[in-house]
Write a structure and sequence with these properties.
The structure holds 2 protein chains of 2 kinds. By secondary structure, chain A is mainly alpha-helical. Chain A has a single domain (4-56), classed as lambda repressor-like DNA-binding domains (434 Repressor (Amino-terminal Domain)). Helix content of chain A is 66%, strand content 0%. Chain A contains 5 helices and no strands. In chain A, helix 2 crosses helix 3 (28-36). Chain A starts with a helix and ends with a helix. In chain B, strands 1-2 form a two-stranded antiparallel ribbon. Chain B folds into 2 domains: 1-35; 39-172, no CATH class. Classes of the chains: A mainly alpha, B mainly alpha. Chain A binds chain B through residues 16-17, 21, 25-30, 32-33, 36, 39, 41-42, 44-45, and chain B through 39-42, 101, 104, 106, 170, 174-176.
């Protein structure tokens, strides 16, 4: 399932996938795979992404 | 067991090759460190690549063991045959990693990687051509050890081309 919440949070911060990838220390392809729903990140990476985007885990990674 | 001059030469050659590898990795990585860094998704993909490569190596050795009998005389010497199996396994692992975004690390400079691939291909190709001209490539109806140079050139050539194609594809589809 696509992670549109993360994509929109990244866009709201005006960050490209490459920029976000550099902030959290992963490849651009990994960010792309998370947004496309092709890869489930570890909790550590989830936390790093949340910190970079100023969001909580619930806001980005919890499905109702 | 006798230690021959060629065995010592091969040992020294491997040792020098390993030392050169350290400098090559430092040159290829943007942070000038020897180790290539991979993120968690890449590590998982690389693990799968190693799995497929492991099974490929087993299958290759099993097939070569079956066909390398007295009845079926293969046109390779044994060292070439072993190396061929290793090369096929490496090609499986690297190809899988390249197409699953796990070959180029997060600290790898792609341009420098391609330069290294071109240089290694050229060196091995030159060694192979020299062996053909010197008549040492094919003797007694079998491809001899210098054929390994041709295999190395082929492997690095394929890798370089694959990396370039993947890089171009990623640039064309930056955020798909």
């Amino acid at each position: 399932m696509k992670n549109l919440k993360m994509k929109s949070a990244r866009a709201a911060k005006d960050l490209s996938q490459q920029q976000l990838a550099e902030i959290v220390g992963v490849s651009r392809q990994t960010i792309n795979a998370i947004e496309k729903g092709d890869y489930n990140p570890t909790i550590k990476l989830c936390r790093d992404i949340c910190k970079a985007l100023d969001k909580t885990l619930d806001e980005l990674f919890w499905d109702e | 067991m006798y230690v021959t001059g060629s065995m010592i030469g091969m040992g020294v050659g491997i040792a020098i090759g390993l030392i050169i590898c350290i400098f090559v990795f430092k040159y290829m990585n943007t942070d000038k460190k020897m180790g290539t860094k991979y993120d968690e998704m890449q590590e998982i993909a690389r693990g799968r690549g190693y799995k497929y490569s492991f099974w490929t190596l087993l299958i290759c050795f099993a097939l070569f063991f079956i066909f390398d009998s007295d009845k079926l005389d293969l046109p390779f010497t044994r060292p070439v045959l072993y190396f061929l199996a290793i090369m096929i396994a490496i090609l499986v692992q690297t190809t899988y990693c390249i197409w699953h975004d796990a070959y180029i690390g997060i600290n790898t400079n792609v341009k420098r990687f391609v330069i290294v691939a071109v240089v290694v291909t050229a060196i091995n190709l030159l060694a192979a051509v020299a062996a053909v001209k010197g008549g040492t490539m094919f003797t007694d109806g079998k491809l001899q050890t210098p054929f390994i140079n041709f295999l190395c050139a082929l492997l690095f050539g394929i890798l370089g081309v694959e990396v370039l194609i993947k890089h171009a594809y990623d640039k064309k589809n930056p955020e798909d």
